[in-house]
Specification:
The structure is a single chain. The chain is α+β, with helices and mostly antiparallel strands. It has a domain of 155 residues: Jelly Rolls (Sandwich). 32% of the residues lie in helices and 30% in strands. It is built from ten helices and 19 strands. The strands form four sheets. A seven-stranded mixed β-sheet has the order 1-4-5-7-8-11-12, with no helix packed on it. A seven-stranded antiparallel β-sheet has the order 2-3-6-9-10-13-14. Strands 16-19-18 form a three-stranded mixed β-sheet. About 15% of the residues have low confidence.
Length: 336
């Protein structure tokens, strides 16, 4: 019988019984691990991370056949420990990554209350950092890594509530009832988003700006094209603004997936390797290069923990059958 009390996340992720619980969800294994979870609360963090690792290993490219997927899964599970010792080691230790995850959790749980005095206030985050900001009207904003938000410290009842965002943020906007002015405006470099009371995600990093609506209604305006009608969004929609083409494109999506970063996850929804590379750069503060154009257009879907770049890179390497090397803060993705 394995002594699971000595296990860390990577050990659980390689245990056949644990993998079966995550992958197959059989009643017997789920019953066993549910009991173990309850009896060993001191290992909850390790167990939660192990679940994310196993889920990440199960990411698959749309055209990947089941036999190859099983082979990849087996290889990852067998060699995870050795891999941690020798490939694409990040400039910080695994211990530092764990400490950073704990610190990020504390920051995430904290609330930065806004004091009532004149002037402006701004908040910014470093790479991999997440902050919760409470606005003067008690609306809440989750600010993703490498992002910034600023606004007036005092909001007057007869004027719109306004914030300016650079990077990525998730908004949970409070409705103001019968107050004279209920308008809430979010400004990015390219768009003005008008809100009454809703939950939505804004990502203004990179070549495009995306807005994903979880609930309520919002209007999307292009501030430099006043003759155009505003675009009204409904829940479950994403609108993408192309800075190059100056166009807005609307599509239906699983909105919760695009705010999953607020729960410590990265979601890939049939994204190209180039799109994934840009997301990694924005999240971790590294530079990612892909050695040819065809490779950059290959696609994948799945989820990965935001505090474990090693697991993410390993998955990309195995699923796409790549060679990944690192020189300082630069990561190179190339065909074998």
């Amino acid at each position: 019988m394995n002594d699971y009390r000595l296990y860390r996340a990577e050990d659980f992720a390689q245990d056949p019984l644990f993998v079966s619980m995550v992958k197959d969800k059989s009643p017997d294994t789920e019953r066993f691990w549910k009991q173990y979870w309850e009896n060993h609360p001191e290992q909850k963090q390790e167990l939660d991370l192990a679940v994310e690792m196993v889920k990440t290993f199960l990411i698959q490219e749309p055209d990947l056949n089941p036999q190859k997927q099983e082979m990849i899964l087996k290889e990852i599970l067998e060699h995870e420990s050795n891999r941690r010792k020798k490939i694409f080691r990040m400039p910080v230790s695994g211990r530092w990554l764990r400490a950073a995850a704990i610190i990020a959790g504390l920051v995430l749980a904290g609330t930065f209350l806004i004091q009532r005095y004149t002037g402006n206030v701004s908040f910014s985050t470093g790479y991999g950092e997440v902050r919760k900001v409470v606005l003067p009207d008690q609306s809440e904003v989750m600010l993703n890594g490498n992002s910034r938000i600023h606004f007036a410290r005092n909001w007057k009842e007869d004027q719109p509530r306004e914030v300016w965002v650079e990077g990525e943020a998730f908004f949970d906007v409070r409705k103001l009832g019968d107050l004279p002015n209920k308008r809430f405006l979010v400004h990015t470099a390219d768009l003005v988003i008008e809100v009454l009371g809703t939950r939505f995600n804004v990502d203004a990093r990179g070549e495009n700006t995306t807005v994903t609506l979880n609930s309520g209604q919002i209007l999307i305006n292009l501030p430099n094209r006043e003759t155009d009608r505003a675009l009204l969004m409904k829940p479950g929609e994403m609108v993408t603004y192309s800075k190059e083409r100056k166009t807005l494109v609307r599509k239906e999506v699983a909105a919760d997936e695009f705010s999953a970063w607020t729960q410590g996850k990265l979601i890939f929804d049939n994204n190209t390797l180039m799109e994934i590379a840009r997301k990694i750069e924005a999240t971790y503060g590294v530079r990612v290069k892909i050695d040819n154009r065809d490779l950059a257009q290959r696609k994948m879907r799945g989820a990965a923990p935001t505090d474990n770049i090693d697991v993410l890179l390993l998955t990309i390497e195995k699923v796409f059958d790549l060679k990944i090397t690192r020189n300082g803060d630069e990561i190179l993705l190339e065909r074998k």
